[in-house]
Amino acid sequence: MSKSPEIEFLINEIIHKFGRSVETSSDFDRLSASIESCTGQTISVSTLKRLWGYVSSNPKPRYSTLNILSQYVGRKDYCQLCLELQDTSEFLNTQRIMASDLVQGTVVVLSWLPDRNVSLEYHGKGKFTVTDSGTSKLEDGDEVEIGEFLKGQPLYVGRIIRDGKELPPYVAGKSMGITSITLY
Questions:
Q1: DSSP string, 29-42
Q2: pLDDT at 57
Q3: For residue 174, which phi and psi values (nearest 5 degrees)?
Q4: Cis peptide leading into 114, omega within 30 of 0?
Q5: Pairing state of beta strands 155-157 and 170-172?
């Protein structure tokens, strides 16, 4: 029996939380103890081995087992974990500004909660300089690359250069998205 995508995801989350792969009998012993320590509930080593396919018998896991494992990885229950994985695709009907449509020298002012404002000056080919970082984690003078701005959606900055060094990607307005976009 092959595992559902939800169970595969759950197993990967467990491995991430556990901090190591689960490949030997002693790994399953340690994982079982870790689950009990975190949740106060017990899952037998044999149940874990079946779930991982470590032993040949692979029956469908009980819902109560999936709930405990979901709690181990920080979810309320298995239902919550599954809801997170649902496809929430949709077409967006919102203000959209493409960087490629801007004229060099245009200043884009973005706002998001709580009380964040950033001003960016456009230089062409999706490249901007932060001219006023406000209270964001960006800094004045940062060089950033942004393809588009969508009101109500998070801002994803894939490339940031600060003092000649590339920083990791950055997301702004992660919870509520960009609340306003103004061009000057």
A1: HHHHHHHHHHHS--
A2: 66
A3: -55, -40
A4: yes
A5: antiparallel
Residue 56 C-beta-side C-alpha neighbours within 13 Å:
0
pLDDT at 1 over 60: no
- Model-level pTM? 0.56
Q: How far is CA 83 from CA 73, 78, 150, in A?
A: 15, 9, 25
Kindly tell me if the per-residue pLDDT of 50 is higher than 80: yes
Contact yes or no for 14/70 (Cβ under 8 A): no
CA distances from 31 to 45, 54, 173 (A): 8, 14, 36
**Bridge partners for 181 per DSSP:** 110
**Tens of pLDDT, residues 165-174:** 999 999 999 8
